[in-house]
Amino acid sequence: MTYQPDRESLKRHQAPEWFHDAKLGIFVHWGLYSVPAFAPTEQGDITETLKRGSRHHFAHNPYAEWYLNTLRLEGSPARVHHEATYGDGFAYDDFVQPYNAALRNWDPDAMAETFAATGAQYVVLTTKHHDGFLLWPSRTPNPVKRGYQANRDIVGELAEAVRATSMRMGLYYSGLLDWSFSEQPIDSFVGLLDNGPSGPEYAAYADAHFYELIERYTPSVLWNDIGYPVEGQPERIMAHFYNAIPDGAVNDRWTTTPMWAHRLLGLRPIRRLADRLIHRMMTSEGATGSVPTNAHYDFRTPEYASFSEIRAEKWECCRGLGRSFGYNQMESDEHHISVTELVHSFVDIVSKNGNLLLNVGPTADGTIPGPQRKRLEGLGAWLEVNGEAIFGSRPWARAEGTSDQGVPIRFTRRADYLYAIVLGAPSGPITVHGVRSATGAEVHQLGHAEPLRWEQRGEDLHVLLPDTVPDLCAVTLRIPQRGIGTLR
Q: What is the CATH classification number for the domain harbouring 426?
């Protein structure tokens, strides 16, 4: 199939089967912001700072990768920290030298092996974040900042290492925002729409980067962020990508804001109204970072999201292991999600037709901090036993259930097996409401060799679990169900 650069043609492309099967990806936020590695923690995570309004949120942004923007806001904790640590004459660009020096110690193979051990099926790397710093030796260098790029081909080296472990490689790019072109900080939600550089020159710059990334690194995922320049060519980029990589996948953050809307946003009453509307959308269920779009996409990308029902369209929840995506030295172990919470959240996402893009924020030299590594290892250990219920699965007729003990359960399916994932580690008898098994079938607990004793009690399945269970935060029952249906 050949794709044309228009909506009718592009909508024939949908999320590929490998993406539905994959379930787990690793997001890597790594760049100049990994040197100062600072964001305030006392105001809570993004869901809490958003509730307090735009000005508070941007001044106390918990995302360390937003350091440059927060630094530009008078009186912000980042400004206070920066001046106390580096002095008021130290510019953000001065982090280029220590970052490039630290890169000498980076081992891309070790990084990829850590990700693969987690059970991840793909990796998405930030090739250029909002600060505009490039992680590859582009033939279209930054036109306003000489040498504003890494001195190693981080994109190429990591892509090679990732593929050597049989994972797929995806590439993130900040299309709409690039703070290297502007000194004006974002201090309101509406600023996300009109703070980016305008004009054909920047649009051509971003377009050229996407074509180059596709040509040089053949990514399986194109993950654009915030939006795209109105004078850019996102549909041409997507058509080119699909024609070059038919089983590639594109995310949803390619919205373009037309010039007439930019002019309206210049009117103060309209701007205030737009800011309130964006705030309302960003704080609604599952909407953080994924607001309505006018662009083509294969999957949606809410941040730190959970939903109460199975979603019809494919989605991918991206979240940090802590409160930030970029490495934040201010975060301690208590600021990170526990392994149990991580597993339960991941299972919930998968049961509702989602993938988890789990973020890692390395230090400047590529080291994965201890609290993050601990969570990756914990998730990997659980998947080693229970991955059969996750990878290659699809949602069942319903996502949620409970046991007779009130323990939450999530459901997935593969072929003629139903998987009931109990979000806890019970032992002894358990009743799963509203589930039937095939007569004479063997019900198993993953990780336990012998079949379990069970009986059907009306519409409920009564199962006798082993007296001793593995040291896991969730256990999985594999239940044969004739006629449950094959995959998609």
A: 2.60.40.1180
